[in-house]
UniProtKB/TrEMBL annotation:
InterPro entries: Dynamin_N (IPR045063), GTPase_Era-like (IPR005662), P-loop_NTPase (IPR027417). Residues 36-50 have a biased composition (Low complexity). Residues 1-58 are annotated as: Disordered. GO terms for cellular component: cytosol. This is AAA family ATPase. Pfam families: Dynamin_N (PF00350). GO terms for molecular function: GTP binding; ribosomal small subunit binding; rRNA binding. Gene3D superfamilies: P-loop containing nucleotide triphosphate hydrolases. One of its GO terms (biological process) is ribosomal small subunit assembly. Residues 1-10 have a biased composition (Basic and acidic residues). Residues 122-267 form the Dynamin N-terminal domain.
Length: 605
């Protein structure tokens, strides 16, 4: 409709041999309605006929509005709590759907429920160069939106309304996230909306000129869809040469999914090809389930000062006037769209919940890998502590040196009145250090295997797992230091157990004095030498403390050692948990709250 733009000819549309039922407009006629079930009677223009609304026909009482608003607020909070931090298949789409849902709740649904008597917002949408701005200017009888050959032309959304409605659109919550400005400017950009008043538009309806739905500028595309999500009625503008293009039907599909009240303007129709074009177009709409929507035809005409001749928009102007003066018709259209949006939540919200559940499930799988690997490492140490494999190398050499040098017997000597036992020899200290080092090496080796296995499992699951595992293929730098401290503390605890629960309960303690460190080392060798109960350490400890004490103290000592190692491994495992937590995945309770919020909304409706 832009007179300076290059226009494709309608003759290029391939005709289909179908019963479209469309009537050829008279030569030189103005805006016409394609017959085929979409005449003036169908649109309600001049007929007084009412199309039955699929939703409610009466206004909601205040109590119902309050309950519905509360349910919607809860739903909005639940949707806002969602985090799709893991880049799983579909995550990007889920984030986009979440943003769209939140924007629609805040820009349209909540404001419309709270103020259901507000003017109706009619969004003019369409593909690049369809002539949306020209149509808005023509209906407003004023150049409110810029037109031209440059694409995209509309850089800032422009809303045109009656002066009596201007305050509501300037101060109302509808599209509240957009800054209101008096005129477009480079600084305003797409996050603003120009509000223009004109007495040529009827009161009660407003026209919003949007960026192109197929704009090459991604921000324009996003804002256009945001405008549509906030509309009470959609007027889709396409041309005789481009009505079959994919962007047009993508938008029509979206309107159908959302249950939006819709009208279509087919512009730039050449009189010589009008019959073929209209038949084909009507057939496509009918096959798509949109055969009964309001349709308007605008012939190819000269555009002057960004506007069409008045005769070309007569039917559209009459349609707007009917919406303006017939409050019930306007309210019905608004209710249809609002109910359509609310109906769409029945599938859109659960779809978000299911994707969140997928994120939670994947996180649980990765978390399970961590638990399995570190529990396996702990199990390896348990086996080593029971099968004698801990007593090898330096530990075994130090024990043989300790036992064969006579220090073992000197650590056990007859009590002499008034004299304390001698201090443990250096071999005792060396043996104690060897045990500590031996345990430390076993623990660190098990932690190394666990970290390597976790990373291998994560990498095997997906590329995302490999990304999350970066830098986690070996234990933390402070594991050796923390392990050394934990084993030293355990050895002190074992000495205390031997002192308090061992010899003190035996009658032999009246005759024998002992060095607690030495006896605890002997006890350690007895515990770790295997379950066969043979050998010098077993016989010696059994003789001094008794078999029952050996079993009791041994069970406590091993349980305490296992707990200390478990805490070390828990600290190591937390590094992987933190990597998962940093992705921002909430637990499954968030999905549950989302389902509950959806159910509560249905109850409130």
């Amino acid at each position: 409709m832009d007179g300076s733009a290059e226009r494709p000819e309608a003759d290029g549309v391939e005709p289909l041999d179908a019963d479209g039922g469309a009537e050829r407009p008279e030569a030189g006629g103005g805006a016409e309605r394609a017959e085929a079930g979409s005449g003036a009677e169908q649109a309600g223009v001049g007929s007084g006929a009412e199309r039955p609304a699929p939703g409610r026909s009466e206004a909601l009482p205040p109590q119902a509005v309050e309950a519905l608003t509360a349910a919607l607020d809860t739903l909005r909070e639940s949707v806002a709590d969602l985090r799709f931090g893991l880049d799983l298949p579909g995550a990007s789409e889920a984030r986009s759907a979440q943003a769209d849902l939140l924007a629609q709740l805040e820009d349209y649904v909540l404001p419309r429920v709270r103020t259901n008597t507000a003017p109706a917002l009619i969004v003019i949408a369409g593909s690049t160069g369809a002539g949306k701005s020209t149509l808005v200017n023509s209906l407003a009888e004023k150049t409110v939106s810029r037109t031209g050959v440059r694409r995209p032309t509309t850089g800032t959304p422009v809303l045109a309304c009656h002066p009596d409605d201007r305050k509501w659109f300037e101060e109302g919550a509808l599209l509240g996230g957009l800054e209101r400005v008096d005129k477009p400017s480079p600084e305003a950009g797409m996050r603003s909306m120009v509000v223009v008043a004109t007495e040529k538009l009827p009161q009660g309806v407003a026209l919003l000129d949007t960026p192109d739905i197929d704009s090459v500028v991604e921000e324009h595309h996003d804002v256009a869809h945001r405008m549509l999500d906030a509309a009470d009625l959609w007027v889709f503008v396409t041309t005789a040469a481009r009505y079959a293009d994919a962007p047009a039907w993508s938008l029509l599909r979206l309107a159908k999914e959302r249950g939006a009240r819709l009208a279509i303007v087919l512009s730039r129709v050449q009189p010589k090809s009008a019959d073929v074009v209209l038949k084909h177009f009507v057939r496509m709409l009918t096959e798509y389930g949109l055969g009964d929507i309001d349709r308007f035809v605008i012939n190819e005409a000269k555009v002057t000062d960004g506007r069409l001749p008045d005769s070309e928009v007569t039917d559209l102007r009459l349609w707007l006037a009917e919406l303006s003066v017939d409050e019930e018709r306007r309210a019905q259209a608004v209710r249809e769209t609002l109910n359509g949006v609310l109906d769409s939540f029945r599938t859109r919200v659960p779809a978000l919940a299911r994707h969140l559940e997928g994120q939670v499930a994947f996180r649980a799988e990765l978390r399970s890998d961590v638990e399995t690997c570190f529990l396996g490492a702990l199990s390896e140490i348990d086996k080593a502590s029971k099968n004698g494999s801990l007593l090898h190398g330096e530990v075994l050499a130090r024990w043989q040196d300790f036992a064969g040098s006579g220090d073992l017997m000197r650590s056990l000597q007859l009590r002499k009145r008034g004299r304390a036992a001698k201090q443990a020899p250096e071999r005792v200290l060396a043996f104690k250090a060897a045990i500590r080092t031996g345990l430390e090496s076993v623990i660190v080796a098990a932690a190394n295997r666990a970290t390597e296995e976790v990373v291998a499992r994560w990498r095997h699951r997906s590329e995302l797992g490999a990304t999350l595992a970066e830098g986690l293929d070996r234990p933390s730098d402070n594991l050796v230091r923390l392990t050394n401290r934990a084993i030293a503390s355990w050895q002190e605890h074992l000495s205390e157990l031997v002192r308090t629960e061992g010899v003190a309960k035996r009658s032999v303690s009246k005759l024998v004095s002992f060095d607690p460190d030495s006896l605890s080392l002997i006890f350690t060798v007895a515990m770790f030498s295997g379950a066969n109960g043979e050998g010098v350490p077993h016989r010696l400890v059994t003789a001094l403390l008794g078999a029952e004490s050996l079993r009791g103290i041994g069970a406590k000592a091993l349980s305490d050692l296992r707990a200390r190692i478990g805490m070390l491994f828990d600290e190591e495992a937390m590094r992987y948990v933190q990597a998962l937590d940093s992705a921002g995945i909430p637990d499954e309770s968030v999905a549950t709250r989302l389902y509950q919020a959806t159910y509560n909304l249905e109850v409130a409706r």
